[in-house]
From TrEMBL:
Lineage: Eukaryota, Metazoa, Chordata, Craniata, Vertebrata
Function description: Hydrolyzes nucleoside diphosphates with a preference for GDP, IDP and UDP compared to ADP and CDP. In the lumen of the endoplasmic reticulum, hydrolyzes UDP that acts as an end-product feedback inhibitor of the UDP-Glc:glycoprotein glucosyltransferases. UMP can be transported back by an UDP-sugar antiporter to the cytosol where it is consumed to regenerate UDP-glucose. Therefore, it positively regulates protein reglucosylation by clearing UDP from the ER lumen and by promoting the regeneration of UDP-glucose.
Reactions listed under catalytic activity: a ribonucleoside 5'-diphosphate + H2O = a ribonucleoside 5'-phosphate + phosphate + H(+); CDP + H2O = CMP + phosphate + H(+); GDP + H2O = GMP + phosphate + H(+); IDP + H2O = IMP + phosphate + H(+)
Localization in the cell: Endoplasmic reticulum; Secreted
One GO CC term on file: endoplasmic reticulum
Keywords: Calcium, Disulfide bond, Endoplasmic reticulum, Glycoprotein, Hydrolase, Magnesium, Secreted, Signal
InterPro entries with a match to the protein in the record: GDA1_CD39_NTPase
Pathway noted in the entry: Protein modification; protein glycosylation
GO molecular function, one term: nucleoside diphosphate phosphatase activity
Pfam families: GDA1_CD39
Source organism of the structure: Micrurus carvalhoi
Name of the protein in question: nucleoside diphosphate phosphatase
Length: 158
């Protein structure tokens, strides 16, 4: 199983540092991250727990699944590529309680496979993925679907 070190880095701009309300003893929240690599697309559904307002959130669990081929294999069929994302997103509906869906951010970070495609083909794929995200019950932040710059991609796995 491939796991990303420090998954909170993927969501640091989406979650406030302190999610736990002052009058609560513990808060559970979720984040969904797609890693669209050249050989496959992986979904990571993270569960975070914040024990108290004074403490940062901690990663408490991860659900993982992957499909092959990678999103870039659908360069000439962007709708078909986006359907692979839709199928993985169905898994997230089972892992995240419905009461949290509209508060759970979903992001996709594409790597070298999409970066190497002609820009119009890559953008067509990303646009279709964004539409799948917007059709879902999850929170779709600005810039939720993007191609990682090669230097950041290497740094995120260290």
């Amino acid at each position: 199983i491939v796991s990303h070190p420090k998954p909170e880095l993927w969501f640091q701009e989406l979650f406030p540092l302190k999610m736990c309300p002052a009058n609560a003893s513990m808060v559970t929240f979720y984040g969904i991250m797609f890693d669209a690599g050249s050989t496959g697309t992986r979904i990571h559904i993270y569960t975070f727990i914040q024990q108290s307002p004074e403490n940062p959130a901690e990663l408490k669990g991860e659900v993982f699944e992957s499909v092959k081929p990678g999103l870039s294999a659908y360069a000439n069929q962007p709708k078909k590529g986006a359907e692979t994302i839709r199928k993985l997103l169905e898994m997230a509906k089972n892992a995240v309680p419905p009461s949290h869906w509209n508060k759970t951010p979903v992001v996709l970070k594409a790597t070298a496979g999409l970066r190497l495609l002609p820009e119009l083909k890559a953008q067509a794929l990303l646009s279709q993925v964004r539409m799948v995200f917007e059709d879902s019950p999850f929170l779709v932040p600005d810039n939720s679907v993007s191609i990682m710059d090669g230097s950041y991609e290497g740094a995120s796995y260290k």
